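Hey, can you fold this one?
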Amino acid sequence: MVISDDYQHLKIEYPDDGVLLVTINRPEVGNRANARLHWELGQIWLAVSSDPDTRVAVITGAGDAFCGGGELQKFLDQINDFPKIAQLIKEAKDIVQNMANCEKPIISAINGMANGVGAAVGLSADISIAGENALISDGHIRMGIAAGDHGALIWPLKCGLAKSAYYLLSGDSLTGREAERIGLVGKCVPDSEVLGAALELAVNLASGPQHAIRWTKRALSHWLRVNMPIFESSLAFEMLNFFDGDVLAAATAAKAGRKPVFPSANPNSSKEVDSI
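Sure. Predicted structure:
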């Protein structure tokens, strides 16, 4: 079967034989994820794995961004809402686990900003190709939540614990050039060549020995599987933060366009507003 085009925010194309191109398609908001897109970013890999017309998948973002993270309103709607948090846990697991378990290799073409869930998708790919000036970050700390949707699992495996601790605890961004230098992405190319480089590699893989390629991916993915308890605990910690005063302070400040004052760091100061 050919993958359906029922996705609302993912554009599906077949630019070459055996190559599927998935484009995150909300360029008007920097491809930020609303509730529907967040769900689609986990489900698409099940279709890729079972699609006989796909041998390699490439994912990129429309316009100038890969994916700028989640929308602020989606973030606000989740605060102190247990049913939504329970659903979010499942969706976040689906993104990382379904990408790892997909039988076909996945290549990300990281153009522009990749933050939060954008970094999760871009860095959970089997091969990540980034533009020199792409901006990659796990911005969870800045929003008062633990780095849970991929960071504690993916970053140490790719670039080591020291660099992971620096970027996950600081929330700082790094360019595609720096990401390649520390081993966070597989390759860095000029910004204008990101998608072309990803598609060229995809064509090469699509014409290669499919059993060998897929079994190599399966073996490499065991690095993720054996470390899944780290992912599970970090994800749980992240979700707990949605019931903490710090996340409300961060959301309130973001909505007002100012720097947050976190209650946990300022126990003697007055609280941020108690509602949005």
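The chain has one domain: 10-237. Let me know if you want another pass with a different chain boundary.
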